[in-house]
Structure formats: structure tokens, C-alpha cells
Design goal:
Largest sheet: 9 strands, mixed
Number of helices: 9
Mean pLDDT: 92
Shape: globular
Strand order of the largest sheet: 1-17-13-16-15-14-5-7-6
Number of strands: 19
Order of helices and strands: EEHEEHHEHEEEHEEEEEHEEEHEEEHH
Strand content: 15-25%
Structural class: alpha/beta
Helix content: 25-40%
Low-confidence stretches: none
């Protein structure tokens, strides 16, 4: 096996592999307008899809981004897409809720989670976005045998509510699907796949601008103040007045954004890209070209690049700040544990981003009095954040106060002792990693 110092290719880069095909654009220096119907804070998937939907309804939309448009999670993610799976896995029972009420609530959320994938596919088709979309399905690989039993209980409801065409694959039948012997089976979600997230973002951005949306980068929002007839949004480049505001900053939500920093927990996630593999080796890793996400508490996920020549491997490498070299070494070690045949494979790219978790593990849209938000992808951002932004745009266009979907459920739950500082993640993450390792050792 290659030593730690040998795992880096000569052209190793500390930036997303995705940016080789599409890099977040220069923000330019256009003059900031003084007024807009709706100001959207955050130019990721949610903000851009919200702006596109508003413009299609004839509403003036201005998007403000602290850095380059799309430089956050939208061009850094793993690019996996599925409809409803994570919502079902993470659903928590509400206080005082009967089993029947919980089932009905979960079914509604599953249907709307499936609608997020339908929306994304329609967006790709409508705007002819070339983003390496492979609708080849997704494997949730089982870390321990007990996870197989838990998943069997979920399949019927998942299929009934989302059309996922999910089925279980026993351990002895996994070889045609994945070139690893570490797992105890898998759940195959056929209505799923993977894409190039940066190219997807570029297509969305082009569509929004073509529809007339104005997107300004290098324009961090310093303050949002309620004024008669709307809001005043202060930035270092000037102040904008708007009738309504949408917060779509997800894992990059600051303390100055209507107290919403206390509602989301940003968690760092990292990825690596291997050097180009021999064709036979690449094909042997994932013969059916499916995306993979594990059933662990601390998830690892991976897939082939759109051209099928590299393995892209990600997960929660560290729960504290770390360099791209450090996270690359940790992820390389995890990758080789699953695929020993990659022991001598070197890394060309290493990068990270922030995932926004919520305390109830659910995505949320909501707000009142003209101040809206779309937050909390919980690891399913490609489809979900696009759909939530679109949903907020629809709600504003309809001038409605009624919930527009099952994720429009009122205030995001908080905690009296959480103020946005994630000091506790190291202890919790380390404990979960230890439990994952112990469970796997026992299963072996």
C-alpha cells in the first residue's frame, strides 16, 4: 500500500474536481440596484431556483451572494440524487403524535421529496442542462446485518409514496453491483442516480439570468431591517430595499440573518477524486455505475465520475477544521478499506464544503411577514434545495400564507443552548465513528 506521502498525484489540487468542467464565475462589478421586489440571500441551488421561478411569474428577483455565485455546497457536493430516501430514514416522531398521524405525515413528506427529483429532472430537460446525468440508481450499502432488517421494513412505504422501485439485494448477490466485500447487503433505489453538480449549477444560473434574474456576487448581507412596506438589506456595496426577502444560505448561514443561524448545524464534509483508473479497474468497482451511500451513522458515499474514469469518494473525514491534505489521507484510507485494489491509486483533488443539518433532521421552508427561508438539506441538497427554492418562489408568486408542501411546517425547531457554535460536533462525531467501527467489528 502507498505511504501517506505517496497518495498525492504530482498535479494534486486543493479544489473541487467538478471545477475542471465548470468553475463558479467571476462575480463582476455591476452596480447594485436600489430596489427589488424580492431579494434572495444565497446564490446556491435554492436561491437560483427561487429566482428562476419568480422571474417566470413576472416578479423582479435579485440574488445576493457573499462570494462567487455557486462557490459553496452547490458546486462541491457528491452529486447524488434520489427521491425521498433520506427523508424516510431521518423522520422523527412528533411529541404526542399517534402512529397513524406519524405515518400520514411521513407519507406526505415522502411524496414531496419524490417531487423534488421530478422537479430537478424537469428543470434539466426544460433548459437542456448538460450535467452528466446518469439515472442508474443508488445503492444504500449495509454496514451491519441489522441494517438489512431495518431497511426491509421501509421498502413497501418507500415504493408506495415515491415510486423509487426499491428492493433489497442480499450479500451473496452484491458482486455484480460493487467490487467490495465489506458490506452485508444493500438496498437498491432504482429511481436515483448521479450528476455533475457544478455543471448543473451552471445550467441553472444561465437559465435564471436568461429569465431576467439579477445575481450579484461579492455582496455579503450585513443586516436585514424591517421597514414600512418591506425590508432594507445592507451590504458593503450599498443598500437595497425589497418588499420580500428569502434566506437561502443553508450551511453558510451567518449570525446576521434573522436568527436562523441557531436553527441549522453546519457540518463539514469532504471529498477526493482519484487519478484516472484503468478502464477495467474502474468498471470493476461499480459495474452498474450506481451511486453508493452507506448505512453508517457517519456516512461515506461514492460514485464514478461522469466519464467513468475516476472514483469520487466522500464523507465526514473530520469534525474539526482540517487541511485538504489531512482529509484526503483520511478518505483515502477509508476508500482502500472498501476497495483494497485501490491501495496504490493516487489522489488528484481534495475539497470540502458544509452540509446544513436541522435538529429534527428535516428540510424546511417557512417564514412570515415577507421574510422567507429555505434551509436544511440534511445531506440531500441537489434535488431538495432546488425544490425548496422553487417552492418558496411559487408561494411568493401565489401570495399565499397556506403551506405549499409538506416541508412548509412552521418554525424550524431550535435548542435553548445552541447559538450557532458547533463545538460539540467533535465529541458527537467521534462517538458515532467509534460505534460504527465497533458494530462492524462485531458483525465480522
Amino acid at each position: 500500500m502507498a505511504s501517506s506521502a505517496d497518495i498525492f498525484a504530482p498535479d494534486f489540487q486543493r479544489r473541487p474536481y467538478w471545477w475542471e468542467a465548470y468553475e463558479p464565475p467571476d462575480p463582476g462589478d455591476d452596480t447594485l440596484p436600489a430596489n427589488a421586489d424580492v431579494v434572495i440571500v444565497g446564490a446556491g441551488y435554492a436561491g437560483i431556483c427561487c429566482a428562476l421561478t419568480l422571474r417566470q411569474a413576472g416578479i423582479d428577483a435579485l440574488v445576493l451572494e457573499a462570494g462567487r455565485p455557486g462557490q459553496g455546497a452547490s458546486t462541491r457536493s457528491g452529486g447524488q440524487v434520489s427521491g425521498g430516501v433520506n427523508v424516510q430514514k431521518k423522520a422523527l416522531a412528533a411529541v404526542g403524535e399517534s402512529p397513524r398521524e406519524r405515518e400520514q405525515r411521513l407519507a406526505a413528506r415522502l411524496r414531496d421529496a419524490a417531487a423534488s427529483m421530478t422537479y430537478l429532472e424537469s428543470l434539466i430537460d426544460a433548459h437542456d442542462i448538460q450535467c452528466g446525468w446518469h439515472k442508474t440508481g443508488r445503492l444504500t450499502t449495509m454496514w451491519v446485518p441489522q441494517h438489512c432488517e431495518a431497511w426491509k421494513d421501509r421498502i413497501e412505504q418507500l415504493n408506495a409514496c415515491t415510486g423509487s422501485h426499491a428492493r433489497m439485494i442480499p450479500r451473496e448477490a452484491l458482486e455484480p453491483e460493487i467490487g467490495s466485500r465489506i458490506y452485508h447487503g444493500a438496498a437498491l433505489i432504482e429511481r436515483a442516480g448521479h450528476l455533475q453538480p457544478a455543471q448543473l449549477y451552471g445550467g441553472m444560473l444561465h437559465a435564471a439570468r436568461a429569465a431576467g434574474a439579477r445575481i450579484h456576487g461579492n455582496t455579503p448581507v450585513e443586516r436585514i431591517t424591517r421597514q414600512a412596506g418591506g425590508y432594507e438589506i445592507a451590504t458593503p456595496r450599498g443598500t437595497v430595499r425589497a418588499q420580500q426577502v428569502v434566506i437561502a444560505t443553508n450551511g453558510y448561514t451567518g449570525a446576521n440573518l434573522a436568527g436562523l443561524q441557531r436553527k441549522v448545524v453546519p457540518i463539514a464534509t469532504s471529498m477526493i477524486a482519484t487519478e484516472e483508473l484503468a478502464p477495467d479497474l474502474a468498471a470493476s468497482l461499480l459495474p452498474t455505475n450506481r451511486a453508493v451511500s452507506e448505512s453508517r451513522r457517519v456516512v461515506n458515499h461514492y460514485r464514478l465520475s461522469p466519464d467513468g474514469r475516476r472514483l469520487l469518494f466522500g464523507g465526514r473525514a473530520r469534525f474539526t477544521s482540517a487541511s485538504e491534505e489531512t482529509t484526503a489521507r483520511l478518505l483515502h484510507r477509508a476508500m482502500v478499506k472498501r476497495f483494497p485494489q485501490l491501495a496504490e491509486t493516487r489522489i488528484t483533488h481534495s475539497w470540502g464544503g458544509k452540509v446544513a443539518m436541522t435538529l429534527d433532521s428535516m428540510p424546511h421552508i417557512g417564514g412570515s411577514d415577507g421574510l422567507h427561508y429555505a434551509l436544511g438539506c440534511n445531506g440531500s441538497g441537489v434535488a431538495m434545495m432546488s425544490y425548496l427554492g422553487h417552492s418558496v418562489g411559487r408561494k411568493i408568486a401565489a401570495q399565499s400564507r397556506d403551506p405549499i408542501n409538506a416541508f412548509d411546517m412552521g418554525e424550524i425547531p431550535g435548542h435553548p443552548f445552541y447559538f450557532g457554535n458547533t463545538w460539540f460536533l467533535f465529541a458527537i462525531g467521534s462517538w458515532y465513528q467509534a460505534r460504527d467501527a465497533y458494530d462492524h467489528w462485531r458483525a465480522r
